[in-house]
Amino acid sequence: MSEDTGRARQLLRDAGAVIVLTGAGVSAESGVPTFRGPGGLWKEFRPDELATPEAFARDPRLVWEWYAWRRTLVAACAPNAAHRSLAEWALHSRKVTIVTQNVDGLHARAARVAAGNGDAAHALPVEVHGSLLRDRCSGCDARSEPVTVDATSSATLPRCTRCGALLRPDVVWFGEMLDEGAVAKADRAAATADVCLVVGTSALVHPAALLPLRTRAQGGLVIEVNPEETPLTRVAEISIRGRAVEVVPVLLVRTA
Questions:
Q1: Which of 90, 119, 92 is nearest to 107 (CA)?
Q2: How far apart are CA 101 and CA 121, in angstroms?
Q3: How far apart are the first and last CA of the chain?
Q4: Active site residue: 83, 92, 107, 129, which one?
Q5: Radius of gyration over every alpha carbon of the chain, rounded to an integer in angstroms
Q6: How much is the pLDDT for 204?
Q7: Of residues 240, 200, 247, 238, the one with CA closest to residue 220
Q8: Alpha-carbon distance 198 to 94, whole Å?
């Protein structure tokens, strides 16, 4: 074990409150595709052409076809060792709040598995960008469990059982505001944390990228786990180079 890893373990163990911020690097080991770049194309469309309120208003059938395909891909993935370690830690330690930029639902799945028949609530993440595996009404804004989507025509698309408006994936699209409640909860956790553990994110997407800075401004420390240097590296107390699936379980061994 490296000196940095040992010191990070001690800081996490001694902290009174910890916020964990995760990004795409955590889920990459589970095989979750990013849907960006040359390998992220779907048919002839780019994500930024489909993940918008305008695209949904213009052609909801096409948007739902894409998201139904994405759900199929994500459903074939499973939480990895990093997800599982974080879920177990949060489940057994009331001092931990997990905040994720990911929409794949893997943190939530890991939490429910870890809890078994018990209450997984405390280990569930704050999903600041929403969840691919949840529906939201485009009319009354009600959230619900995902339904099977038939995108063969506009007439077969899922509708809200309350108001009859079209359902949509409960994810934050380009040009939309983040959920105020989720952002407020994440900010409170960052402001009161002794340590912010940042795993698998480039720390470029705002406002989530501001959370480590919030912790640091309040006198807390930042620990970064990432294979590469990021803009956050310069403000981190400890920066560990490595894959989340390898580093996180080691950091959290016997951490309470």
A1: 90
A2: 18
A3: 19
A4: 129
A5: 19
A6: 77
A7: 238
A8: 18
SS3 97: strand
Q: 122 an active-site residue?
A: no
Sequence-ordered strand ranges (E) for 53-206: 96-100, 126-127, 130-137, 143-144, 167-171, 195-199
Rounded distance, CA 221 to CA 12, Å? 10
Q: What percent of the chain has pLDDT over 90?
A: 85
Contacts for 8 with CB less than 8 Å, ≥ 6 apart? 223, 238, 240, 251
Residue 178, CA distances (Å) to 24, 101, 127, 186, 235 in order: 18, 11, 10, 12, 25
pLDDT of residue 12: 97
Count of C-beta atoms within a 10 Å radius of residue 19: 30
- Summarize pLDDT for 118-128 with one digit per residue, the tens: 999 999 999 99
> pLDDT tens digit string along 225-247?
999 999 999 999 999 999 999 99
User: What domains, with CATH codes, occur in the chain?
Assistant: 1-32+79-129+178-256 (3.40.50.1220), 33-76+132-171 (3.30.1600.10)
Query: Residue 109 corresponds to which tokens in the numbers above?
Result: 């799945």
Show the DSSP H helices in 15-52 as ranges.
24-28, 47-50
Q: What is the pLDDT of residue 198?
A: 97
pTM, entire model? 0.93
Q: What is the three-class DSSP state of 50?
A: helix
